[in-house]
Amino acid sequence: MDHKSPDTATITGNAPEAMKAFARPTQPLREPKLVPHPNLGALRRLGTTKIYADTADVRELTELIAIGESSIYSDVDGNTANQPLVHKVIQEYLGLWDPQACSDRFGMSTDRLDRVALCYAVLCARIGNDFDHLFASRRSWEVSLQLHMGLTKSPDLAKDVARWIRQMAPSAIIKVPFAPHAPECFMVARDLERENIPVNFTSTFSARQVVAAALLCNVTRTNVFLGRLDQGLEACLLGAHVSLEAQRALRRLRQRDGVKTQLIVASLRNWETFLHTAGCDVYTAPVKVLRDWMKQEHIDPEQVASQLDRSYGDRLGISAQVLSILGAERIAKLYDVEPSFIDFLKAFGSTQEWRAMSDPEALFKRFEEAGFGDMFYSPRQDDWTEIRRRKIPDPNGSLTQQLPLDTLYSLLADADFEKHQDEMDDQIARYLSQ
Length: 434
Hints:
Blueprint: H1 15-22, E1 33-35, H2 38-45, E2 50-54, H3 58-65, E3 66-67, E4 71-73, E5 78-81, H4 83-87, H5 90-94, H6 99-106, H7 112-135, E6 142-146, H8 155-168, E7 172-177, H9 184-194, E8 199-202, H10 207-217, E9 221-225, H11 226-232, H12 238-257, E10 262-266, H13 272-276, E11 282-286, H14 287-295, H15 320-326, H16 328-332, H17 339-349, H18 352-356, H19 360-369, H20 381-387, H21 398-402, H22 405-432
């Protein structure tokens, strides 16, 4: 995005209380009876701690987990909401309150990004509170809410907005997207976790990105978007293999180094993925995929087995054409983590230099000096034109030949989120001008 913003929005007066008022849930508090589901329970039995639904629509989740009027399936205990998902419901939420009155009461500056970013945060918090009121039922409900994409290069403002979201929606986990063109994303995640604000470090596609999030920031959650990996490289089990390698790497780091980070297996495209990756920490899946898994009768729940020690390295299913263009060595960097990279992260992450670092260029230089600067990339204008054209890599594209695949995938994901953000910003701005 080309937005420019001051580091801190001007919030005055009784703004926090006003924000909480505007973020109050539209849904009544309910306490339905919690009923286990055998297929979802099979994943729990193998060590999965959380199962999320990819949705910002309470009606969509109600249709999935409601059992009559008074019960719901207990094994879905959270939801994730990124820009494309919020975009589907934003018009409905905009119609429920007056954004002009909202921004006036916050006492914000006249900067457009300040205004729309904060209004977007309030909308997201209200969505999160709706889910909590309907589905928590006296248990911990977690909703991952992604920061406004325009805050990527405004770390102080990003952290302020994250704090406000947590005040408005106490069940929220803050989604901080990994931005290869903005190394400060690591600093935002690091600082929020220091304040005990849980972070879901998102837009991640490889085992090395997962390891970096864990060792530098000790985030609560991070992800592998396995569906996009398979789609982009015309594969069938590559995403599952990357997820399992990332899970094993995190398991070792938890045992040896005391990190807390859990892996979210994300972007599932079919119910079989649960079988291929069973035993992973957390899942977030579209409602359709969850429904298909809950309804499937091909395998008995008792027969679902952990895949944590399974390797699909010899049957990734990558198309011959893609393999010939990219080469096996480049693709392997999605799931192989160099021991020297782990050594660098452990050493650097323990220094006072990193603990106090606030300059993103200094962080990039440390990675570059260690030989891992390719985790980051600052696209030129013509690069952005190519990036914004697709959601997945073009095997013959110039950037696909130039960049590591995980770096490119992250850029593509963020650009896709930015498109939705821009459209929502226009919707919010129109309301603000009324």
